[in-house]
Amino acid sequence: MRNIINAVMLVFFISHSCFAGDENSENENNSFEQITLEQATRLVIAKDGSSRVLGAQTINVDGENIHIIKVLTPQGRIRHYKISAETGELIN
Q: pTM above the 0.70 mark?
């Protein structure tokens, strides 16, 4: 299990995508691009770098995509971060 988590983390760090302007950039159809699950996970890693990512998924709640990132804190607790796919903001 640890090797899988490490492999996933390595993929996130190697990826060349960046956050700046992604959530507000327009594509050819004049619609706004959403923040990907990978980008949301990287935001959580940057915010809470001492935690280990246990899992990540995207769910749809009332027509809005929400990224849920599950991390293990250094204290051994599991914490779930909810991030709006549209804005990239943390949802309480």
A: no
Asked if residue 30 has pLDDT above 60, the reply is: no
Within a 10 A sphere around the Cβ of 56, how many other Cβ atoms? 19
**What residues make up the domain containing 81?**
2-91
CATH code for the domain of 78: 3.10.450
Whole-angstrom distance, CA of residue 33 vs CA of residue 16: 17
Contact criterion met (CB below 8 Å) for 86 and 32: yes
Please choose, from the candidates 56, 75, 76, the residue with its C-alpha nearest in 3D space to the C-alpha of residue 66.
56
Distance CA 78, CA 75 (A): 9
Amino acid code (one letter) for 63:
G
Please check whether residue 83 is in contact with residue 66, taking contact to mean a CB–CB distance below 8 angstroms: yes
Distance separating the N- and C-terminal Cα atoms of the chain: 29
